[in-house]
Prior knowledge:
The chain is mainly alpha-helical. It has one domain. Helices cover 66% and strands 1% of the residues. It has 14 helices and 2 strands; from the N terminus they run H-H-H-H-H-H-H-H-H-H-E-E-H-H-H-H. The chain has helices at 14-37, 48-78, 87-115, 127-134, 142-145, 152-165, 175-195, 203-207, 214-227, 236-252, 265-282, 296-303, 305-326, 330-362; strands at residues 259-260, 263-264. A two-stranded antiparallel ribbon has the order 1-2. A hairpin with a 2-residue loop joins strand 1 (259-260) and strand 2 (263-264). Helix 1 packs across helix 12 (296-303) and helix 3 (87-115) runs parallel beside helix 13. The protein is globular, with a radius of gyration of 21 Å.
Amino acid sequence: MAAPPAPSEPRKIANIERLRGLAALAVVICHIGGHFYGFTRISPGPEKLFGWLGQFGVAVFFVISGLCIRLPEARALAGGGVVRLDVREYLIRRFLRIAPPYWIALFASIAVGALIKTELIDGAGSPFDVVSHLLLLHTLAPSTFLGTNGVFWTIGLEVHFYLAYILFANRPAKVWTAAALLVLALVVFGAASKLLATGNPWRIVGQELFLTSFWQWYLGALIADWALKQPRAAAAPPLWTARIAAVILTLGLGLFDPMLGPMHLRDWLLPFGAAAIVALFVMRPVDAGEDSNLLEPLNALGRASYSLYLFHPVALSLAAFAIMSRGWSTGAGAALCLILALMLAGASYRLIEKPLLAWRRRLRPAPKPQGQAR
């Protein structure tokens, strides 16, 4: 496996943690706007940006995931070391990170779905549905793709990305590989669109198969290899100007929807915008630090971002039930949803994720002296 980072080199990139938290919050705001106010990506006015926030957040998540998973190997390559992924350790660590919180969110979704159904939680609880979700195979069948909890499809794809990465881990990330994966994605998506008519339930499975989106995840791996070879940016103000511009331009894609055959072009441009945002947030200026106690709320949001993503549909259903039974206003329901989502995320992180992360760190093999392969 990759050599450990130097003592002065942090394992985590603070800005990426914060960006992850903001991406999760974008998804939450998208679903709040959709449920309580009817905002979608096809709304007639600028409110369609609320619907776009969800897709924007997921694209940023995919790129960040590829970056973070790739970092150990990228650091080894940057240091001139030999990269050899310990597949067993890698899979155990990925399992401990992803599965336990996901499983708890799964059963919470089933329980809340028995109370009230929403567009994100459908109350499905058949044995096939439950087992396919437990095994993270739910994206391979149309009846379970969006079942139980409407955000779980991305978790299924994430696991498929982790498995696919094993094939690429021991070699440098290359632009031509990303291009080849993009071509593969276009071919698979095009074939699914051509062979499966609109209304065919298997169409979404073919179009959203992990092969059509792995290239987005791989962009993060490409950024990891690139970032560790680059010097810091020249100055903070131009860097922040570029970051803000990248965010605005990428969000602005949501206002347009040009088509090329069956493809929404903005959906294929979005990952490039997400990659540009992540690359700019990885860069650090030479003339100013970016760590501040004022940013601690964003740090906390980033740490709990996975739980926030998993549990916010549960919070939305509970808020919907509350306003339905008590006659509260739409605004009160939206505020309650956000508060519940943050509370559930904080509880899940402290009680589930944080202990598991500590245990996972204890499983990490002791570093070997420099120059020895691991």
